[in-house]
Design brief:
With 594 residues, the protein is of the alpha+beta class. Helices cover 38% and strands 22% of the residues. It contains 21 helices and 22 strands. An 8-stranded mixed β-sheet has the order 5-4-3-6-2-1-7-8. A hairpin with a 6-residue loop joins strand 3 and strand 4.
């Protein structure tokens, strides 16, 4: 009886391996460029035709290969990157499997030319469908050149799945962009159908991002650099206004390798959660350095996925590193370029500005002070003992914060504040600003367990459903920390005897029911911190001014001062911007003076 189990022929196993590694022309270019980077290349040229279906050519000036090594490189599981199973635990190169070249060669017409440094001549190997047809000596520069023609010529089923020329060319350009971002010290050129798509010179990351993603994108990015417990996060992260509707501009690298890791992406989005509206993604180019033994890159043939040994520690490190940058809101304090004027012109301009400010301030309408509102939102002034008062009076006054140093020009629609920063006009959303201040103060109080509660003169009886009563019982400690004083009245009935002091001017019963409803929607899939912050957001939103409301000058000053005292002041907790900047050049263009 004949055996049913048989060993597959080598040409078939190579095609199966190619199905895992070679998905489309962009996959081929990824593998070849990674090999060039591992070979120490300082310049890489990528050329392709017909979206990569007709020709892919990758040239580098790396170490090159001898005749023997070039022949071995086309064999399966032949690599110079690792030698034992222990090396799998400390991989520092981009490639290591030894499958890419033979897999690519098995589904194409491949020409490999390589010259080792210090040798007189190079070696040229030509193969079709994984079979070597010719080996000869050749003259060439030091380095390696790989030409891949007629990709999938012997696997028509795979060829049918490729998209149009333009679509495949777009995937190739995106792939080369990611690789070029990973190594700003290497020169990259990308040529499609003999037309240069881009050429990136070697330099720093800022220059590389500007050349590949555009000056408009790079101008909104700010440096991130933090190191702790063997982990390091570096790179550039964007301000909220640079967000996109997809994660196409979120570039994440682990030990120099581009990855689409769920832990990494979730940590980035977690850090931006109070800056961006739902469905928006930040722009960032981030490099995470992890000890080689603490990350497993041998998860998938494409090497786009990794597995961290301490996932929670890596996640928390990324979140805290980005929050540290975002909390400082460097984009607000970035000094705009100011035109240098002659002394006489500068003096006249200053006088006109002072006069216009005086006129604007004189137009304020007097309004009654809202003492209870300020008491709920802002901290009351502390009394200074006489023994310390003299010392504090002689001490130098602290530098005013960004918002406190703004010149208030007036109001617009009683919803927005018009301010001046240098030669720029700033428009501040009153509601978003108050909401951020209230949220950050509530968050601080909640963390210390001292959210101020106000007892009700007439307690309110609240009827709950069975599920709502169960949720209230489950989160009883959270409600208590939030300042809600609840008492069981039998069955599903609760008596509300106290509420957070900040809700005194709001419909606190409605807020309480909204929180219960939100708890039922959030469910157990969300972390405890996320649930608590969403509840604090709702309380903050209901406690501050909504719609049109005239603020007195002292209230405006208190609001701006409060914004300086909290972090993440450029956006409200829901991600909406607190301020918008209109530059002088934009104003001059409106009046045809630019």
């Amino acid at each position: 009886m004949s055996s049913r189990v048989r060993i597959l022929p080598e040409n078939l196993t190579n095609k199966i391996a190619a199905g895992e590694v070679v998905e489309r022309p962009a996959s081929v270019i990824k593998e070849l460029v990674e090999n060039a980077l591992d070979a120490g290349a300082s310049e890489i040229v990528v050329e392709f035709q017909d979206g990569g279906k007709r020709l892919i050519k990758v040239s580098d000036n790396g170490f090159g290969m001898s005749r023997e090594d070039a022949l071995l490189a086309l064999e399966r599981h032949a690599t110079s990157k690792i030698t034992s199973d222990d090396d799998l635990l400390s991989i520092s190169t981009l490639g290591f499997r030894g499958e890419a070249l033979p897999s690519i060669a098995s589904v194409s017409r491949c020409r490999l030319s390589s010259r080792e440094k210090g040798t007189i001549e190079g070696t040229e190997i030509y193969g079709e469908g994984g079979k070597i047809k010719e080996v000869k000596a050749c003259g060439m520069a030091e380095g390696t050149v790989l030409e891949i023609r007629n990709l999938f010529f012997n696997t028509p089923a795979r060829l049918k799945f490729l998209k149009s020329k333009e679509t495949e060319a777009g995937h190739v350009a995106d792939q080369v962009t990611r690789l070029a971002l990973s190594r700003p010290d290497v020169r990259f050129s990308c040529v499609s159908d003999e037309r240069i798509l881009f050429r990136a010179l070697d330099g720093d990351l800022v220059e590389r991002v500007a050349s590949l993603l555009g000056r408009s994108v790079s101008s909104g990015l700010f440096p991130v650099n933090r190191q702790d417990n063997g982990l390091q996060l570096s790179g550039l992260a964007g301000q909220p206004e640079c967000s996109r509707s997809a994660a196409s501009h979120l570039y994440t690298f682990v030990n120099g390798r581009f990855v689409r890791d769920k832990v990494f992406h979730h940590a980035v989005l977690q850090a931006y959660r109070r800056f961006l509206e739902r469905g928006r993604y930040p722009v960032a180019v981030l490099f995470l350095a992890v000890p080689a033994g603490d990350v497993d890159v041998n998860v998938h043939p494409t090497k786009h996925e990794v597995r961290f040994r301490e996932q929670s520690a890596v996640h928390d490190f990324i979140v805290s590193s980005l929050e540290e940058m975002l909390q400082s809101t460097p984009w607000m304090r970035k000094s705009p370029a100011v035109e240098v004027l002659p002394d006489v012109a500068r003096g006249a301009q200053s006088e006109r500005r002072v006069e216009s400010v005086r006129e604007a301030l004189g137009n304020y309408r007097p309004v009654p002070a809202r003492e209870k509102f300020q008491e709920a939102l802002f901290r009351p002034k502390r009394t200074i003992p006489e023994s310390k008062q003299a010392a504090e009076e002689t001490a130098p006054a602290p530098e005013p914060g960004f918002f406190s140093s703004l010149t208030v020009l007036g109001r617009y629609l009683d919803e927005y504040l018009l301010c001046q920063d240098g030669e720029d006009l700033l428009i501040i959303d009153q509601h978003a600003a108050h909401e951020r201040v209230a949220f950050e103060r509530l968050k601080m109080q909640f963390a210390t367990g001292v959210v101020e509660s106000q007892g009700l003169l007439f307690p309110e009886v609240i009827e709950l459903s069975h599920s709502e009563a169960a949720l209230v019982a489950e989160h009883a400690e959270t409600f208590q920390k939030l300042g809600f004083d609840l008492e069981d009245f039998g069955g599903q009935t609760r008596v509300l005897k106290g509420i957070p002091r900040i809700l005194m001017k709001s419909n606190h019963t409605r807020v309480f029911r909204d929180i219960v409803e939100e708890l039922s929607v959030l469910g157990r899939s969300r972390t405890v911190t996320d649930i608590q912050e969403d509840i604090l957001m709702r309380i903050a939103c209901h406690s501050v001014i909504r719609g049109r409301q005239v603020l007195a000058p002292q209230e405006i000053a208190a609001l701006l001062s409060a914004l300086d005292s909290v972090g993440f002041a450029s956006n409200c907790p829901h991600g909406r911007p607190v301020l918008q900047r209109i530059r002088r050049t934009d104003v001059e263009k409106m009046f045809k003076r630019g």
